[in-house]
Amino acid sequence: MYMLLAMGLIVGSFLNVALYRWPRELSVVAPRSHCPHCGTTLAWYDLIPVLSYLLLRGHCRYCQVPIARHYLWLELSNAALWYWVAALEPLGLSYPFSWQLCSKLLFTSALLLIAVIDWETFIIPDPLNLFIAGLALPGAFLEHTLLWHERLRGAAWGGGILWGIAYIFRRLRHREGIGGGDIKMMFACGLLLGSKKILTALTLAPYIALAMVGLWWLRGSKPNLKQPIPFGPALALSTFLAASYSEELGQWFWALLL
Ligand SMILES: [Zn+2]
Q1: Structure confidence at residue 20 (pLDDT)
Q2: Averaged over 32-58, what is the pLDDT?
């Protein structure tokens, strides 16, 4: 379990790197991490998740400028989400991890990163969608619970429905409603999760998006309907819930309908 949390934090700090560099079109691997303010290359002991932040009291060791809080929050959220996902698995909290669990953990991190990047920049980077689609490939061989034609159907529904909505929206309103990133994302997620879960996710997404707009409004931001709302975070959350609780959500939907 400690192993899981530690790895969750480490991957979380990698998400920070990706979050900072992708929208700026910088390489995710090449230069070592440096302070965005003074540019000093950071030593390994400055980059230990959470610990370094606490030891340095949230300031750069070299120039004393405060380190943005969201670095810490992303690391902690990733570790917490990993714990949540692993706790849902029968043997999830015991080491070694199965392929199935590893794939779920990495998928969760990808969704978290999509939500944050889309929230900040209105972009869902293609490498993330490719990464999710890439997880589906070994899954097709290793997981016999989900057959490959079921995966293809999931991708067709996931991408197709959003593409259809985007097409109608463009025809009616003559502007972009749903971005290409959202469509590609749901295509990739469908490939990984299959049609049942992706349809659950798509049913859930509008409600989550509405709830998010509601929360936004309650917090005092004035609602501006002309301003675009990033749909990625709502899609990421609904896909996460559908992937984790498809049975419960399915039963609940049917109970509401009948
Ligand atoms: Zn600095």
Answers
A1: 82
A2: 85
Its pTM stands at: 0.88
- Residue carrying the six token digits 């303010």: 37
* pLDDT greater at residue 43 or residue 227: 43
Instruction: Quickly tell me which residue has 């969750």 as its tokens.
Output: 8
What residue spans define the domains of the chain?
145-258
pLDDT by residue (tens digit) across 76-89? 999 999 999 998 88
Please tell me the distance between residue 13's alpha carbon and the centre of ligand 1 in angstroms: 18
For the cut 90, the answer to whether the pLDDT of residue 170 exceeds it is: no
- Centroid of ligand 1 to alpha carbon of 63 (angstroms): 4
CA 8 to ligand 1 centroid distance, Å: 26
Query: How far is the C-alpha of 213 from the C-alpha of 65, rounded, in Å?
Result: 34
Query: For residue 65, which amino acid is it?
Result: V
Query: How far does residue 38's CA lie from ligand 1's centre (Å)?
Result: 4
Determine the distance separating the centroid of ligand 1 and the alpha carbon of 7, expressed in angstroms.
26
Distance between CA atoms of residues 32 and 130, nearest Å: 24
